[in-house]
Write a structure and sequence with these properties.
Strand content: 25-35%
Number of helices: 3
Number of domains: 1
Strand order of the largest sheet: 1-2-3-4-5-6-7
Distance between the termini: 33 Å
Shape: globular
Order of helices and strands: EHEEEHHEEE
Structural class: alpha/beta
Largest sheet: 7 strands, mixed
Helix content: 25-40%
Length: 134
């Protein structure tokens, strides 16, 4: 997916927000809130029907520190929490379909999942991608 395929949001009311909620529910597109891409995975082999929230880092994996990753993940979670607080329907979609939080890197030609984040905020790193402590 390219950045051009993402509906970026800066407010949580109006026609763009309504379109975003429809895209998430249908799984027919990706919505961007800050550094988070939101898409429901449906209609292809391996699709689990859940809403995937991918927090993207701007750093190459080899230069990531635990502090940077933690800061970026927290900022992504806070951005989505603000959207949920602005419109309960987003949270209802999450409850209906379930959510998967991921921490990712976009290298230009594709995306690498660096970690999965559980509902308590704990991060499980993919093999070979654990950031260095500082």
């Amino acid at each position: 997916m390219t950045k051009g395929d993402i509906l970026p949001l800066h407010q949580y009311t109006g026609p763009a927000w309504e379109a975003a909620l429809q895209l998430i529910e249908s799984g027919k597109g990706t919505v961007g809130i800050g550094t988070v891409h939101i898409q429901r995975w449906v209609g292809w082999p391996g699709a689990d029907g859940a809403v995937h929230l991918q927090v993207f880092t701007g750093r190459e994996p080899k230069s990531l520190t635990l502090q940077t990753a933690s800061t970026e993940i927290s900022a992504g979670v806070e951005a989505v929490a603000a959207a949920k607080a602005a419109d309960r329907r987003l949270g209802e979609l999450f409850s209906r379909y379930g959510v998967v939080w991921e921490y990712c890197y976009d290298y230009g030609m594709g995306t690498i999942r660096l970690a999965v984040i559980d509902h308590k905020g704990r991060t499980t790193w993919e093999p070979g991608f654990r950031p260095v402590p500082v």
